[in-house]
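Q: Structure for this?
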Amino acid sequence: MLEQLIQQLINGLSLGSIYALIALGYTMVYGIIKLINFAHGDIYMIGAYVGFACITYFGLGFFPSLVIAMVACGLLGYLIEKIAYKPLRNATRIAALITAIGVSLFLEYGTMFIVKANVRTYPPVLADLSFKPTSNIVINIKQIYIFAVTIVLMIILQYIVHRTRIGKAMRAVSADMDAAQLMGINVDHTISFTFAIGSALAGAAGILVGVYYNSIDPLMGILPGLKAFIAAVLGGIGVIPGAMIGGVAIGVVETMVSGYGNSLYKDAVAYAILILILIIKPSGLLGKNTREKV
Amino acid sequence: MNRVLNLKNIKYFIGLAAFYGIVQILIFTNILSDYYQVTMTTICINIILAVSLNLITGFTGQFSLGHAGFMSLGAYTCALITLHISEQYSFFIGVFAGALVAALVGFLIGIPTLRLRGDYLAIATLGLSEIIRIIILNFDFTGGASGLSGIPQYTNWTWLFIFTAATVIIIKNFINSSHGRACISIREDEIAAESMGINVTKYKVMAFVIGAFFAGIAGALYSSYFYFIKPDLFGFLKSIDILVIVVLGGMGSISGSILASVLLAIVSTYLQAFPELRMVIYSLLLLIMMIFRPKGLMGTKEFRLDDFFRKKPIKVK
């Protein structure tokens, strides 16, 4: 019984790490320009496809493919921001949201047009090893890779945000865009950089999911995208550690529900968590309450 | 009596009746083929959905991404009633029961969630409509994932016309009433509206419930025309489709919603020739539209025939 619980916890943590990586992009973009970037889930899908191409057609290993997928997604995020979101910086929120939905549909169906709609099997790039600490607990090597990559990326992200000049600029712009501009910070450049970093993290999540679940398709980004957004809201949107905690929490809860309850309800539980957190504490677990000023 | 039976209203009534009559003759003489009739039904249902969502999002300023959830409640209620009671009046009961169920759920959902603002409300309504979909998916009497089929077809042009015209007239009159003005003031500035003594929560919930009611009617008409419904039809993408119509037409313009419903139906009819590129072109159109004209086709203006017949536009200095 306890062993089964630990096993579910391990599975939940692997799924949660992936949600956390996607949620980081949502939370950084929302923190800086107050936009729900619906296209974020699709950038994750593109990351999975770039990784697939690197492994299958160029015969690269796991780490080179990971880096290429991250760079490609970072560039894509940068371009999307420049082409689609920058002209709408001063438009209404709903116009920006509809644009994000438009970008999302474009990425999904553009990819579907190029690679066709069928599900593809990911090539086995990591050896299929697993070890058993006790008789009923199985830890797969892929899960260890997911933990390791996630933790390393999060440490790098924390370093960038808290120890570098660009990170300082990001924090300043998300605190107050106008004041940051007056202090001589290049706001456009900072926003583009935020998009690039967030998208690179989503790209890493994409390739990890491909390796973990072995199958990818052009619409795979919709549901994880929504759940990662829920994770970002749960942790407190705009708060980077919140996105990590929220992602892991959603992953664990989802695995527990499908392990012990009805797996058909696992998506409903994520939405229920979202609504409860919005009603009880809209600023999220780690968010601060902000007073509304007139 | 005089206020209702003035010359303008009589003109509108005659115009509507003439439009109804012409289309009915075209259907009787088979000039309008079945294919066009399906398109026309889709347009009418989309008009009801878009105008009712426009009341919530365009006029009251409350961002809802869950309209498909209310539509599915109306569709399933009407379908279950017409499947189990086969009387002449069962369609009527079905439509109104569907609308009432949707309105009731809208009321229950609205009270807690309408405290949220902007994007948070959008995501909460999205989550709730997905929960409705998942619940329907897991019940036995709703047919689960395969849905309900063999629903008797009662919806015809007459009913579509009556319900569409009634939706537009009722919502237009609501907006022109003092309640509607209160809703618009909430959109413009919630804090200012509250300090002027408007009960913000009451009007938000009112707009939400009315919107849900008409979405329920649209769903009922849908299920009773297309014989077949399943939970996947009422997912997240359906809500987005409705929102896109509202935003393209112009938030806060009823005639804009009608125009956009007709235009999008025409565009998607033409795009059927390229099934693979259809969604790519659709998304590009959406992006171009949003980047170059973010306020939509009509903005907040209404289309009036008088503007065409007036000889010189009045200039305001």
